[in-house]
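Much of what follows relies on a compact textual record of a protein's fold. An example makes this concrete, so a full record is given next.
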Amino acid sequence: MVMLALVACAVQPAQAQGAIQFRAILTGSNEVPPNSDLTIGTATFTLEGNSLSYLVYVPALTFLTSGGTISGPALPGVNGPVIFDLGAFIYHSGSSFGDPPFYSSGSSLPPPFGTGPFTLSDGQISQLESGLWYVNIASGPQPDGQLRGQILPVPEPPTVALLCSGAVLAAIFYRRKS
């Protein structure tokens, strides 16, 4: 009985199991054309059903951001049209504990600081899951883009590993009951 439940959970489609996570690493070398900025930002995304929420983090060490977008569909090295504007970014001055200053934007922030969450069509979900969207962060000197990163799915633990772990736990539980 326990094994049947484990198998049923393991073979459900990923979207039916809940939220799907995505991540983008934002660098100047990913821009089109590439630039020499050494800043590395991050963006995290959560797709629940057809609702996409996000949080973007950009260190405020080398430039002043003027905003950001989600663009696509486009492969790395190719520009695409803007799909969503990420709104204004909030400047955080860092802390006395040595945390550096940074900018952030997120779907949980009130406008103009952040927008969304965004409602996606089936076609947009397919593009997102295929890695055809990217985040573009602009600055005054580089209004077409200072940092860029392709939005990619965060790998889930392998289904087989989860199934095997469940089988081992079930066997241990069964032996203790005997």
